[in-house]
Amino acid sequence: MTVQPLDELTDAQRDLVERARTIAQNDLRPRAAEWDRRQEFPEDSFQILRRAGFTGLTVPVEYGGQGLGVFEACLVLEELAAGCMASAMSIQMQVNGPPRVISRLGTEAHKKKYLTEVADGSTRFSIAMTEPQAGSDGTALATTLSEDGDGFRLNGTKCHITGAASAHAFLVFCRAAETTGPDGIGAVLVHAGVEGLGPIETEEKMGGRGVAEGIMHFENAPVRADQVLMKPVKGSKEGAAFLVRQFNPERCGNAAMSVGVARAALEDAIAYVKQREQFGRSILEFQCIQWKIADMATELDSARLLLWRAARTDIDGFPGMKETLMAKLFANEMAVRVCNEAIQLLGHKGYLTRYPMERYFRDARGLGIGGGTTEILRNMISGEVTGVRISQRRR
Ligand SMILES: Cc1cc2nc3c(=O)[nH]c(=O)nc-3n(C[C@H](O)[C@H](O)[C@H](O)COP(=O)(O)OP(=O)(O)OC[C@H]3O[C@@H](n4cnc5c(N)ncnc54)[C@H](O)[C@@H]3O)c2cc1C
What we know:
Blueprint: H1 11-28, H2 32-38, H3 43-51, H4 70-83, H5 85-96, H6 98-105, H7 108-120, E1 125-128, E2 144-148, E3 151-162, E4 169-176, E5 185-191, E6 201-202, E7 213-223, E8 228-230, H8 238-246, H9 248-275, E9 277-278, E10 281-282, H10 287-311, H11 321-345, H12 348-351, H13 357-365, H14 374-386
Parallel strand pairs: 1-4, 2-4
Antiparallel strand pairs: 2-3, 3-7, 4-5, 5-8, 6-7, 9-10
Helix pairs in contact: 1-4, 4-5, 4-9, 4-10, 5-9, 9-10, 9-11, 9-13, 10-11, 11-13, 11-14
C-alpha cells in the first residue's frame, strides 16, 4: 500500500521512484533502527545508493551524473526517508547541497574534480554556515578569510554541521576581514583533514541520529586561491544574496524527507489500525480513528503537492523562493503532526522503541530547525507575499 499520486509522473520518473523505493524498503529500512541506536553513519546505505547512481542524480551528465533536477531529487528523497532517514540524509547533501553551488559558481576545474567525485561517490560534502553566534541570523557569521601570499587563511568556528565527521570536503561560508552583516560574504571549498582544522566534535541528538552534526574549528587553515568559490569582497553583498538562494534545493530536499517520514508513519499506522481490535471490533471502525487517518492523509498530500509545485519551479537547480519556503514550512510541521498522531494510533506500542513510530517522530522533529527554522520561514514568506521585508535587526 502506498499513498503517493504516481499517475502524474512520466515513465522515467515512475521508474526512478520504483528503483528508489525498492532499495529503501529492501536494503535501507531493515537497518534504520540500527543506525539510529548506534548513532553511526550509514556507510553501507551510502555505498548501496552510490552503486545505484543516486549520488550523481543531479550532477550534470558531462561530469558523470544523471543531470536530473530538484523535482527528481525530491521524488528520490521521499522514498529514501520513508525507508531510513539517516540514509536519506547521507544523500541529501550530495544531490541538493554544495555540488549545486559548484555547478553554478565553480570553474571548469572545480566541476571536473568535485562533480565527478560526487557522482562516483568518492567525495561527500557538508555545508558549513552556522556559527555559535550566527544561527537564524546567518549573516552574523564571523569566520574570516584573509589573504596570505598567493592564498588565504581561514579562521573561525562552525557548528551544527550535518555529516561533518563523515564528509570529505566542505563548502564553508566566510567573510572578508573588517566586514559585518551581509557585506563581504563568500564561500570556499575545504578538505577534511586540512592543516588548521581541529578534530571535529559531534554531539548526541534526538533524531536523524545516524548522521551527526559536527563542530569545526579553523585556525589559520590554508586555503589555496583555486579553492575559493566566491571570494568575499568588502563592499559587496552578492555573496549574502546567493547564500539565501542556495539553500532552496536543500530546503526542497528537507521537505521531501518530511513527506517521506510522515508517509512511513501513516502507512504503518493504517496497517496497524486495520488489524488492532478493541471492544470486539477493529479500531478502524471507530469514526474518531477514521477521521485521524483522513486528516493525516490530507495533510500529507497537501505537503507533497506544495513540494511538487516548488520543485517544478526549479531553474538551473534553484527553485523559486516563495514556493520553496511554503513547501518546507508546511511539510516540516505536517510531519511532526502526522508522526505524533501515528504514535497515538498505536497506543503504547507507538511509544516503545521496539517499534519505529517514536523514531519517525524524532527524525521529523529536527527538519523544522535545519535549513531555516519555521519561524524564519514565516518571516520570509510574509516578505515574499506582501513585498514588505522587515529587517529583524535591532535598529
Ligand atoms: C538537524 C539539523 C541539521 C543542521 N544542519 C546544518 C548544516 O548542515 N549546516 C549548517 O550550517 N547548519 C546546520 N544546522 C543549523 C541550523 O541552520 C540552525 O540550527 C538554524 O539556522 C537555527 O539556528 P539556531 O539553532 O542557532 O537557533 P536560533 O537562531 O538561536 O533561534 C532560536 C529560536 O529563535 C527563533 N528566532 C530567531 N530569530 C528569529 C526571528 N527573527 N523571528 C522569529 N523567530 C526567531 C528561531 O526560529 C528559534 O525558534 C542544522 C540544524 C539542525 C537542527
